[in-house]
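Quick entry, no commentary yet.
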Amino acid sequence: MFIGVFSELQTGTMESTYDEDLSENIFFKALKTEHGELFEKATQDGWIICIPRVCSLPKYALTYEDFFNHILIPSEELPETHFRTLNDQEIRICNRIISIEADGGSTFSTQILFEETYYTDEMLKYKVLCIDNPLDINLENTNDASISNIQTLRDCIDLLWTESKGKEIFEKMDEAIKMFLLTNDQFEYNPFDKQKYLVEKLYQNCLNICLKDNKLRQSISINKYLIDSIKLAVETYMHHGIYKTLIKGITACTALEDAQFNKMIRNLSDIQLKDLDIREDLYDTVPRARSEISHIDCYSTILGKIGCVRRCISAISKEDTRDKLQGNIITVDDLLPMIVFLVVKCALPNWIAHLTYMKQFHFSQSSNVCIDQDSFLITSLEASIEHIKSGLLIGPSEPEALMSYDDQEELANAKFKPTVEMSDLTTQLKVYNKYNNYKKISSLTKLFEFARLGDGDKVRAILQEENKKEDSESLPLCHPLCSCDDCEEAINLKHSQSKPTTQSMDDRGFTVLHVAALYGRIKVVDLVLELGADTNSQDLCGCSPLHYAATRGHQNVLLLLLHSGASINLTDNEGNTALHLATNNGHETCVKALIYFNEQEVLNLNINAVNNQGDSPLHAAARWGYTSIIQLLLDHGANPTLENKRKVTPLQNANNLHVAKLLNAYVHKPKPLYNYLVPKEKVSRPPSPPPTQDKYLDYSDVNEANISNVNVREGVRPRNITEIKKVEQLFALIENNEIKLIKSYFGLSNEEKVPDNACHPLCQCAKCKEDVVESESRPVTDECLNINICNSDGYTALHIATSLGHYDLVRLLINYRADINIVTRVKQLTPLHIACQNNNLSIVRLLLAAKQCNVNAQDYRGNTALHYAAINNHTNLATLLLKSGARPQIKNHYGQTCLHMAQQMTSLSLVRVLTHEAPFVLK
């Protein structure tokens, strides 16, 4: 029974990527089973056991001499470098090379592949070295059988160059890679499984190119292990050639997972080492380890990315130190929390993509090895990421930086660490008393603790408590002006017991409103606002309660603060607004709340505000891949071409292909035409004759000039850019049939109110309109849109709702007196025209129910609604229009009546209806 310890992870110490399970090694098994006494003696005396790698063992039966040659006894004078075997052979170890000096002066050497430390059942420790070749100078050995050292892309190129004919195979692989990129120019748009299949097919093609080389095949026949090195070298070279295309495809496939993971790590950005129970002796290793692992996205090969993780772990264990006694002994339980912390603190936006690349595209990994060093490193990184994804760190855990409100220095010196279990004040008081020499806890600390727990009653009791009047003479001072330590302590103690207010601050500038907003205690926030708390109070970091609510994603608290007058554009010391922080942490609900509240209250939210680094909220959303937030920001005027101080735009900062495509669409989107704000010159029409000169004696002569253009009306034009944007948002809501939100844009009440004395619910006569104005309970403010407002093409909300067939919305708009005779600017279409074009009989009935509906209005071609009913061969619709006063004898600009069109459509039933309603037309 033994316990293995994984060691030697640093690149400089590990001389090859070779790994094997020594417990399955024939030499090691024979030593433990057939020569148990020798093995026991070696473990008891602390001797070093050398085990030749499995492919280098001699073919003959192993003897005692073979085992004696591989057990090393340290020298008393130089136990680290000088040894002797049980056969009295002198051995030297230098730079992981074992050297044996023969009698004839010749030297035999072999390298140490790796070392492992084992423990027996009696917990006796012994060291095992896996070596390249047996320690026997009489055995025939060639350099060709040695293991190649592959750690970098350069090592891979050197191996392929030296073991093959050189330039020829590189030219062929380059041609294969070039053809792959040309053939798969849309590679990143493929599903993940197809991407993996195509890359694996390219790998097999490149490997076949190498294996066709005669020199390389000969080398492989001599050294069986060389084939694994060749596979790794080919894979690494291929990955380097296609990396830019490949990583784009992978990030496109993992975009959703990356965005979700990014939101988790952004909300854990305040986590500290103590929160993860990391050993204090590992704290000083964090800067270098973080530097190493943060370069993982700089490498184009799996080999390079694994090297980053290896160097990171080596930095944690301090394996590169010259004094081995100063190194850190770490277990897996120590290692994983450190990697979790480093992953959170490294600002990489696509961890899932990098992990997927390392796991799924490592084709050269031998399938007959359960786990090797590379697998251990990848698995460790994966375990850390999965632990973060599980959400265990976000739920009940609270960063230590936000837990303590008392003197931080005293708590740090006392090794006090708040825990989640301390949910009641009694426990808090006991702990504080224990570590603060049983001093009385300050009233401000009590207030903050009750605010954190959401106990509104106790918060109110403390804030409304009458301040105790104490005479300064009661203080035990040496003299009134004394400032010695004892007197200062007495004064501070008195001040700590004074009554706190809503404006009282701790040493970080926190007020009770900051604490309540930070923890999302909506009732406490409402209470302290009622008691006069300053909504724009800033702490030492420049953060207001609104900043903390946005950072933590507390939408209700955020809205309450905004309603109470919190400044929406207030910045912290780093220049971040609440929108920056909500976007950076992926809180879409808070982003929506800020934007929509600004639209309703017109707070002049600067959606393109930049912080001290020149980053706008869109920069952060693009970096972390929050697609829905990006769409929201773009829809409300965010600039995708805005450069930060590093001259980087949100488009260049895009996390993945989907984000880049979304931003690129807005970059190349045609600029909005604002010139329609200036009234255009209307098309000249013949003036209508005065009533005394009315010659409408023969209805067959009625045309566009004397019928349809009487009282033609157009929609209300937006007055400014803000209204233009609101119209665009309104029409988007109409498309989704969001009736409640549409009402808010028009300033309408949630209940439809119709005057009791109205002719009928949809009447639009002058009397009913006047009554509606008087009975409307909620007047339209300057921020609300006119119900007849239109876009650049002249389409009103009623036009859009009619075209989409939203019956309830059309009814609502008509009920609130939307003008049903407004025409569009170019095609001169009324809502009735659109309804007839779409054969929507129910909406036509709604429109006709209003007495003011002009059933004979003509569009730019002269067609009436009845013309469209004839074109669509809709008999019921034509019958309804005729009963409502439609005139079948009206001609369009081509001289055609609706009857002509019905005859052209060979619609006998429609012809019968038209001739029955207007027989005089046949004359």
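second:
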Amino acid sequence: MADIAVREAIRKFTNILGDLSLEEGIRFYRLDEQIEWIRKELDETKSFLIDADAKQEGDERVKNWVRDVRDFAYDTEDIIGTYFLKRISWWRRKKRLFGFLGRFACICCDSAATHEFVMQIEGLKRRSEDIKRSRDTYGIECNVTEAAAGEVAVSFQQRREYFSKYIEPDIVGFVEDIKVLKERLLDERIKYCVIPIVGMGGLGKTTLAKKVYNDVKPYFHCHAWVYISGKPRLPSYILEEIAKKIGLKKEEWEENVEKNLLSFLKERSYIIVLDDLWAIEVWEFLKEFFPDTMNGSRIIVTTRNHDVAKHVAQGSSPHELGFLSYNESWQLFSKKVFPDDGIGRFPPELEPLGRQILKRCGQLPLAIVVMGGLLSLKDKAEHVWLRVLQCMEGEANGECQMTLYLSYIDLPYYLKPCFLYFGLLPEDLEIPVSRLINLWMAEGFIQYQGQLRLEDVARGYLDELIYRNLIQVAKRSFGGRVKACTIHDVLHEFCISKAKEDDFFGIYRNLDSDANAKMRRLAIYCSVCSYISLNHYTSKLRALLCFQKDWESLEKDQRSKKELEKLEIEHLRFIYTGFTLLRVLNLEGVQFEDLPDEFGILIHLKYLGLRDTKFKSLPSTISNLKNLETLDIQSTNYYSVPSVIWLMTQLRHIILDFYAELRNPFIFGYRMDRHRAVDKVSLPNLQTLWMIQGSSLEPSCLCEMTSLRELKIHGQIMLHSKVLSTPKAISDQLENLQLEGRTQFPFPDVPVIPALMLSHYGNLRQLVLQGKLEKLPNHDEFPPNLTKLSLQSTNLLEDPMATLSRLLNLRNLVLGYWSYLGNKLVCSEGGFPKLEVFKLIYLDQLKEWRVDGGAFPQLRALKIKNCEQLDMLPDGLRSITTLTQLELNMPERFYSRFQRNGEDWDKIQHVHSIITWQYGKAKQI
């Protein structure tokens, strides 16, 4: 962590040299020379930190030296950041003042501040000399040379490519557990039941529950997975989470979630998982909203507490999870240590040591997979493994804790802060990878590696943490890329404990806080105002992350919502004026109407997250945030964003939603500029532009976004689509494009998306087209490497299969709502050579579908929904031996043909999983 602090201080010194060294006052004090001296000292110290990081766990003196370096770097950054703020404040005041006296006063203040800055720099120089002397005394060595730096970049690229291809192996063990649980869940004789899975932490309760949940959820009308945890959480918030996931509308879970949830579940069969339940009181509250209507509904509860399990079981036996058998433990361990082998074959010379190490893991799955991840990256040499075994025989608080500790110590220095950062985020959070990476970047955790983008380097970091089995994959894209991740609750607790030991971050829940004056990062899981009211000593914060989900966290105050809103706004103003050094500000769930103008004071801010805040507008002072890289606004109300964001050159990611309205600041009056477009853009670093209204952006401005990777435009997009189709690609790096056109009243038959020519976008993998197409592009006008295509409301009259079947890399195809208005589809021989997933949804006019032999040679999943006039499945399905999943939601007459021994049964009898839907109820054939 000291390495990050030093790198950020060096960056700040470099910036101040560039910004201030030309001024006469600075040259008078010869400040530029002193700043450069400190910068070089920090740069030199950084090269010693790798060696110190490796030595500090066994040497308390080295650990204290690393802490001194970190504090020195933090203090250096504080001094620079504060001085920057003062200079900018005086510069703005100087512009507003007239006359000799006003300007003279500003010059005096400026000179006094510069003199103070000089004195502080002198103090830093003395501390730097002390650190240097201690370094020599403790024998800390320099580990990085220029040649080594080049080798590190090459090595990282190789490791990144390797880790990115890693896919988690199948679950080991639990075979009998899975069988027993699925039988109980799908037994039609049981009309309602609650199944608790109980066992100590790390046994695999959540893994087991997730496996059976994913397998059986198609058989229920609705389903939800909710994480409870032992941390204080409002029961009403848990109900809201369930309501969202089972499909209640926004107004239903916002207004009266208890009544609407109960009413909704009474009419449907459901399966709900309550993961990590600790308290009987929480169950007693929640169970009132899980009605027993004798329709086969199920509830799964995972818990470490046997008393909770017995209480929840309602007289039946909880499913008690034990340790893995020795053979299962060895099989799991082998697969994790040698993941490339497939079957995990141990070299004979290492097997005895491997078995001794496994014995130390106590047949606990979590300990086994983490230790396996550690050994998988170690040299396969006896002396290396023997050293690991000797460490495990040292002092320990238990097998699992020692394993986690060793795995953390073994992490490269650049991965440690990235791993600990998971402890700062809520325990139950399924973290979108893009969001996590943006946070890491804003914190300064990511280092440039050769020509790689920082985002790609960060993905390499995450892939390595996954490979080490410290982080779990929650979602993957169709191409195998990790989309969301999560962390085991035991590892989450370890991160919090280690972070507290290192003063890395603090967490505030109600009146329980572990924050202190040295903290640079803080997460607030309750009311922001309650923290600020009690703790004014964390003014040096670099990151403030709020996860306030709703107003009920302040229920006990018995104030009206209006009073609470006023309270929040007052405390928001304090955030901007009291925490002026912030680089990360996430106000998720904090309810307020507007951001104050003081918001522009946060000139160091790199990440701004305003999800679910329901604010109405951003102030124009956002233009002062010259370092802002990520603007993440996904609210649930209409809000306006000033058009000055188009001129903020450092922005890399702009994430809006359907409700965003951009205003033009160059036109007077809100009503006049409401629908006007900006005709100038300066965003050379922009990589994500998500959910932007076409009317808010001049189409030609897309050509200025040369780094764009993800683009989603909705509304009036005809001209934007034409710009995308010009011979020169707007960005060679574009990977994901979504065009959602809106039909213009009163011209419903007029196309909203023109003829497209996208063949010059070689990196474009995902394409979504929604809205009436002028014409379907020819196969050679589509991106050549397209893997996923979704068409919705495109109103095609001609059969698109002749064209789409020639897209050689297409793996996922969705013909959605009213995409095709014809009555016949023909898939010719050899078509769709790589397609794996095919979905036909709401094709009202489709009557016949023909599949010739040799089509779909790799198809594994097929879904047909609400194609009301289609009477039968195509004969060609017989020859698609790769097909393993078939899901049908069709009229009853459609099903009669392929019941077992029916006239069409032979077409699909080879399919492993066939699920049919009728009246909202799933059934497996």
